[in-house]
Amino acid sequence: MGVRNYSTVNKRIASVDPWFISGLYDAESSFVVVILRNPSYKTGWSVQTRVQIKMHEKDRALLLKIKEYFGGIGNITKPNKNLTVEYRVYSLNDIINFILPHFDKYPLVTKKYTDYLLFKQIVFTMLNKEHVTIEGIQKIVNIRASLNTGLSESLKEAFPNTEPVSISELNSILQKKLNLDWMAGFCTGESNFFITVQKSKTKSGLAVSLRFSVAQHSRDLLLLESFVDFFGCGYTVNYKNRLICEYIVTKIDDITEVIIPFFEEHNILGSKYINYLDFKDASTIIKNKDHLNQEGLEKILQLKNKMTSFYKNTSINNHN
């Protein structure tokens, strides 16, 4: 690829596949409904909806491509103190005309699909002007109670008769066959590429290994378990005490013969692509056993330092 920097990586983003976008939104987006006291409204309450996706400032070019895909609607925020930016769509008309048609045609796969369906119910409740009555506000509150983390304490106090809608009927659509570009988008958001170097009794005194992983809330354990079949390798771990599950691949043959070829065909996009390339270089060194000599080991250590710096400089708070 030549010099590896963010400007050259961004030039690679010519277009973004619709399924890639859904995969990335499965990883990094939120469907937000804000209900606020507002005395200027007849009901005393206002309802605001928005769809947002958060990434590091270095991935602004990718967000711009997504904005372009959605017809230029919405806006991209300025970097905050954590150097993260968000692409946000507020307009009810834009959500109805651009956002909903996309996710109906290219559905989300994680449990976030349930949040999307609840969000969609609220959007159509507002489209039908039901939110201009207190009964309509209560209906929205009932739906909002099942969305994301539920209601704030103040909303619970203001609407004591709230009955959260049942989400058991809103079945997740974990597909029999995951889309390849969805996987690329999802892994652009949620995957990690690691080089591990540990002390050992080998001649060099160090043992080198690679690790590809994807972590999610434990509610998506079934999805991550399906990755084992999708890739034909790896395993899952459910950290019950942390409510986190993880798909992991560590065998060098699986990494060089399955994981790397997949992402060569279905690219990671944005800043993480640089990290992927370093991981790929390390896999070649290890596959050829060049890490057993001093020169190869030094290259591995250099790549590891670059990747450690990447995660330090691009980490964002998980908001899903």
From TrEMBL:
Highest taxon of source: Eukaryota
One of the record's GO cellular component terms: mitochondrion
Domain Homing endonuclease LAGLIDADG intervals: 21-123, 183-282
Record carries keyword Hydrolase: yes
Mitochondrion among keywords: yes
Pfam families tied to this protein: LAGLIDADG_1
Protein keywords: Endonuclease, Hydrolase, Mitochondrion, Nuclease
One of the record's GO molecular function terms: endonuclease activity
Protein name in the entry: Endonuclease-like protein
Record lineage: Eukaryota, Fungi, Dikarya, Ascomycota, Pezizomycotina
